[in-house]
What we know:
- This protein is α/β, with parallel strands linked by helices.
- Among the domains are: 14-129, Winged helix-like DNA-binding domain superfamily/Winged helix DNA-binding domain (Arc Repressor Mutant, subunit A), CATH 1.10.10.10; 136-290, 3-Layer(aba) Sandwich (Rossmann fold).
- A hairpin with a 2-residue loop joins strand 1 and strand 2.
- Mean pLDDT is 83; it is low at 5-23, 129-138, 380-390, 686-698 and 955-961.
- Keywords: DNA-binding.
Amino acid sequence: MASCWRTKNTTIPAGAAIQESSVRNTFVFGPFRLDALQRRIERDGSPIQLSARAFDILLALIRQAGNVVRKSDLIAKTWPDGGVDENSLRVYIAALRKALGDGHAGAKYLTTISGQGYCFVGSLSSPDQQKPAPARSNYSHNLPIHPRQFVGREQSVQDISDRLKAQRFVTVVGPGGIGKTTVVVSTGHALLAEFAGQVYFVSFGETSDAALVPAIAASSLGLAAGPNDAASSLVAFLRDKRMLVILDCCEHVIEAAASLAERLYKEAPDLHIVATSRELLRVEGEHTYRLSPIASPPEKAILTAASARAYPAVELFVERATAAGGEFALTDANASDVGNLCRRLDGIPLAIELTAGHVGTYGAGAMVQLLDNQFNLLWEGRRTVLPRHRTLRATIEWSYNLLSETERVILGRLSVFVGGFTLDAARSTAGFEEDDNTVLAIIDSLVAKSILASNTGPQSTRYRLPDTTRAYARDKLAASADVEAMARRHACYFLALLEKLGERDFSAVADQFGNIRSALAWCFSAQGDREIGIALATASIPLFFRLSLLTECQLWATRAIDALDQTAGSVKHGLALHAALGWARTLAGQFDDLGIASLSPALELAERHGDLPSQVRLIDRLHLLQLFSGKFDDALGTARRGEAIALKSNDRAALARMRVALGISCHYLGDVAASRLYIEAALSRSGLDVDEELTLDHPGRAQITLARILWLQGYPDQAMATVQKAVADLITVNHPIMRCRALLWAFDVFYWAEELASYEHLIDGLLAETHQHNLFALQIVGEAMKGIALLARGATDSGIPMLRSSVEKLQYHRFGAVAGLCVPLAAALSAAGRGDEALDTIDQAIAQSRHCNFLMEMPDMLRVRAETLARKAGSDVVKAEQILEQSLEVAQQQGALGYELRTAISLARLLQRQGRRQDAYATLASVSNRFTEGFHTRSLKTARELLAELGPPRSGSLAAS
């Protein structure tokens, strides 16, 4: 598509339009007028705020109006330094469409040409055909110069402008450094045409005398009035005028500013007022616009330079860092650190600007660590700004000095909280000397004064001190006599909250984990209380597992266990802590004797005190650890021990869990029939559904095991239906460990059925989740399965290295079932002509499997070994045939008809190459004819086609079906 030019007013040849546009610097379309030299765009004479890059993109498209501009050309022009992808471009295109009202009321200016780029399709007209906007030289305003650094606030300016037109009086509220003055000054510039230049700026920031407020306002408007009659003079002057007056920085003279604003609003009906303050004026006619932080990347976001630039906070950081003159460039390597800095600075522009000015000296990564340890509240900014904005400390101190003494005390106490907290937490912790009503009133006041942030969610309101404010208030608390009492009350509050919630309802505390971590750190510090720490670590265990914080669980469990000897720790605490330590090590991929040594003391304690539910839970964990570490016979004995305990306790759910464990053990040991009996017995127990505690024993685990058995027994259709339903159910489970473990357990069914194309996207999601939650062992297994999926679609060059690397890692960590992953690896190596490597791989797997009695995949191991021998140059066909016969025999003994078919196909092909067609036909037909379903599957289709090649079909055989 070479051209998409069209015009509503005049038909203009595309080439002519492009030529004309290329020499013009003023463009008019619809209600818009764009001046390229002044970098200004107006709508009906009123300026529109666009970021510099959005303006550049629009100008580039307009200069090529009617032609498709390739995405790569737009990126090269707008981001000459590179390092940006199409996602960032799409963000700016979307912002442009919103600013232009593209698609509303029939307006159309920008169009996307799929696979190519973007095209400006608006109707351009000559500037002299439009009524010129009023000349700026005629404006008599006293506005400060339009801010040069204006990132992420375009929509705020538009929103405030719209509200002012409709409501006359708007107060822009927000904490110090949020950019209130910048936004209202920009709003004033945007509304110059609307008010014919009659826009005046009044700043109260440099006075501390409230009595001077009317006089300062009068002086700013050019009135000569004495301090006693300034307010009356203002009213008389403004009564019949249509003007916009900006009252900036009202909070420290709020009574006087509020009184003046209300009088002007009432007595000057055409006057429009916009005020800025850290709290509302609370007067008649006032409407609130609460200025939010500029958008920052979310927590734990993994960013590239391109994706980071889509966030205004990062864009501002980069601009200020570059302007500071240091050698800083946003790269893929530092993008996540920069995003983390912006988020930690709460998206507050001043904090971002001050911090960015020092990134060239320290580096982004080092600055993240610096913020973790202590905010540098003394970093200085530009000398030309007001003193209260030269450092973060000055900005916060400005607000702090406006507080009452009681407000200062409560603010210091609230600094003990990390991240969000509830009103109940604040009252219980910070209000130990004040009554509830006083604390509530102070919290409301701190919110109103933009010192404390609040967010009302679906359950309750959460409060939060911005990190910069918290650092300042924490210094004040540290210098007070309250510091130790606050730390103790804080820890006791969260201990009581966790003990009250128990093990299931985590929604109320999941977002407050920073507080729990902080409380634990104090408990085990030199000044802390070990007894509270032991109890808190125990109560936190369910949350550690629900949030997949396995390393942290090990840390606090170990510290609490060490402290048990120093205190009178209870048996309950000891049992829970030892159990948690062993289980966390298991899930973190540490399959060693230390994990078993941690679970064993817990089991002994449970047995000694007759705690049957804990015994069952611990046996379940011990069983899985034994499977992971390759102790398959021990795992079967452990499951039998658990079954006996469950029967004794008459607990249906526990019995179902133990029978799932028995079924899985039998499955690993190659006893397919016994495995099915146990699984079906477990599934018949209605109590299975109740288990969603700290294990992976979701009902889906039993369903997936059943699906595996069904495939092995020769029921591929039933197997796929069962596993697909289980997987669909698992996607909705809100438990990362449980979901990832079960999805990996389901993989083999898709692999055996040669249906990996429909499963690979789940593997990709699983890998992202295991990485996010630090599930090391599951991540490696997931990488192995990704390698297998790559091999299944022919990507040998990437599949073999990925699978081999995963196998080596799992062997290093002594993962018990790693031999099963060697089957597809050896098969791929053999197919790639690397026969010696393939034989070494599969021989080691067979030896390891026989050593630990891992017989589940022995038929397939033998089949792959035989195929590798047969494929090698100078192959030993007789040996290969013997191994295939052995594979068939093992599969028959196990009751694994699925494996029998795969081996029979290989054996039939080997016999066919020797000219033994009748033997080949008989071997394959004897296996394939035993199937009663799955005739559409790849293996059975292959069998049918091979039988057709080998000889005439026999009546009633698969070949005739």
